[in-house]
């Protein structure tokens, strides 16, 4: 499984995760989950910033870019601890606004 649902994501102790936002800096500045911002175009050159000891959740606005990043990280760097946040930041906003 390459993805994690928003319902499961919000239940996880965030101290056990590394959360990476692969959106552009201006998107991150407009709102984000507590995360590190590494734009998609820089992620493969920033592999040293990915914590191999934690579960890593990667997100973007809708989940599409993050899914591509997860695929590339698994294929090119054999990282098996990376997961896409299904639905991305938009799903997070929609879910948390209902509470």
In summary, what is this structure?
This protein is of the alpha/beta class and 99 residues long.
**Count of runs of 4 or more consecutive helical residues:** 4
Strand percentage lies at 15-25%
- The percentage helix is 25-40%
What overall geometry do the principal axes of the alpha carbons give? globular
The spatial strand order of the largest sheet comes to 1-5-4-2-3
Largest sheet composition: 5 strands, parallel
| Element-by-element helix/strand order | EHEHEEHEH
Overall mean pLDDT: 93
The low-pLDDT segments are none
Alpha-beta classification:
alpha/beta
> Rg, please?
12 Å
Terminal residue distance: 27 Å
Question: What descriptors fit this protein?
Answer:
single chain, 99 residues, alpha/beta, five-stranded parallel β-sheet, 4 helices, 18% strand, globular
Your description of this structure?
By secondary structure, the protein is of the alpha/beta class. It has 4 helices and 5 strands; from the N terminus they run βαβαββαβα. The relative contact order is 0.24.
Secondary-structure topology with pairs:
Elements: E1 3-4, H1 6-9, E2 17-21, H2 25-29, E3 36-37, E4 55-59, H3 64-77, E5 82-85, H4 88-97
Parallel strand pairs: 1-5, 2-3, 2-4, 4-5
């Amino acid at each position: 499984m390459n993805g994690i649902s928003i319902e499961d994501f919000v239940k996880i102790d965030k101290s056990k995760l590394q959360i990476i936002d692969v959106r552009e800096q201006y998107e991150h500045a407009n709102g984000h989950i507590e995360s590190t911002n590494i734009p998609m175009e820089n992620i493969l050159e920033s592999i040293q910033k990915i914590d191999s000891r934690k579960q890593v959740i990667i997100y973007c606005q809708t989940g599409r870019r993050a899914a591509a990043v997860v695929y590339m990280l698994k294929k090119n760097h054999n990282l098996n601890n990376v997961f896409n946040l299904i639905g991305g930041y938009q799903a997070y906003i929609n879910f948390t606004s209902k509470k």
